[in-house]
């Protein structure tokens, strides 16, 4: 079965166009002011209006309040929400509030971290395994960090899942072969600078996924 791809942190029509042309199944819009990829609701809506029906828009949030979720879903034209640093109870509430497919990020550094995924059964629709960032880091992801993919060996995933963290055009093929990930997610790995997407890197990443 072909592997799906989410290109995250898009902010320009050019980058969005490269993701669509290359065959991305999902695109991510970040709603988190400390991030260099942060978008206003109106900007996200303008980009979402350019999407064909087969490409899904995912809003990315860090433990958001109800108002932020409500505005983003209604104004930003989102198909799904992706939550970082958000408890299972809060995730379940946001899932009900947004009435959208909900992805829960699980930060991974050691095998024991994978156990957190089970707590999201009934609260989320999908798990996103991401690399755990250092304590005190302002951002929960998008820092080019990866975790040891061997930690996933033999894992029984409680929900459909996504592999994220430190992926780029050079390693995504290996990541897919190593983990069997059904969806891969990239942000900083297709940038020329923080928050600046590189259309050639986007194309190369998507090509590498298709070859895997």
TrEMBL record:
SUPFAM superfamilies: Ribulose-phoshate binding barrel. Residues 6-208 form the N-(5'phosphoribosyl) anthranilate isomerase (PRAI) domain. Pfam families: PRAI. This is N-(5'-phosphoribosyl)anthranilate isomerase. Keywords: Amino-acid biosynthesis, Aromatic amino acid biosynthesis, Isomerase, Tryptophan biosynthesis. It catalyses: N-(5-phospho-beta-D-ribosyl)anthranilate = 1-(2-carboxyphenylamino)-1-deoxy-D-ribulose 5-phosphate. The keyword 4Fe-4S does not apply. One of its GO terms (molecular function) is phosphoribosylanthranilate isomerase activity. It is an enzyme of class 5 (isomerase). Pathway: Amino-acid biosynthesis; L-tryptophan biosynthesis; L-tryptophan from chorismate: step 3/5. It comes from the Bacteria. It comes from Sphingomonas gellani. Gene3D superfamilies: Aldolase class I. InterPro entries: Aldolase_TIM, PRAI_dom, RibuloseP-bd_barrel, TrpF_fam. Its EC number is 5.3.1.24. The keyword Amino-acid biosynthesis applies. GO terms for biological process: L-tryptophan biosynthetic process. Belongs to the TrpF family.
């Amino acid at each position: 079965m072909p592997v799906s791809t989410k290109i995250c942190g898009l902010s320009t029509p050019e980058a969005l166009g490269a993701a669509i042309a290359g065959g991305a199944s999902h695109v991510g819009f970040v709603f988190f002011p400390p991030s260099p990829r942060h978008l206003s609701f109106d900007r996200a809506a303008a980009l979402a209006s350019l999407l064909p029906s087969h490409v899904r828009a995912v809003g990315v949030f860090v433990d958001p309040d109800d108002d932020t979720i409500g505005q983003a879903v209604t104004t930003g034209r989102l198909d799904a929400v992706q939550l970082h640093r958000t408890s299972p109870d809060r995730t379940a509430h946001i899932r009900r509030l947004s009435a959208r497919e909900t992805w829960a990020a699980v930060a991974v550094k050691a095998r024991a971290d994978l156990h957190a995924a089970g707590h999201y059964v009934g609260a989320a629709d999908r798990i996103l395994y991401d690399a755990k960032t250092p304590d005190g880091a302002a951002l929960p992801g998008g820092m080019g960090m990866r975790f040891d993919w061997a930690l996933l060996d033999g894992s029984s995933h409680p929900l459909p899942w996504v592999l994220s963290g430190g992926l780029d055009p050079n390693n995504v093929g290996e990541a897919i072969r190593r983990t069997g990930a059904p969806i891969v997610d990239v942000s900083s790995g297709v940038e020329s600078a923080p928050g600046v997407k590189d259309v050639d890197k986007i194309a190369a990443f998507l090509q590498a996924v298709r070859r895997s």
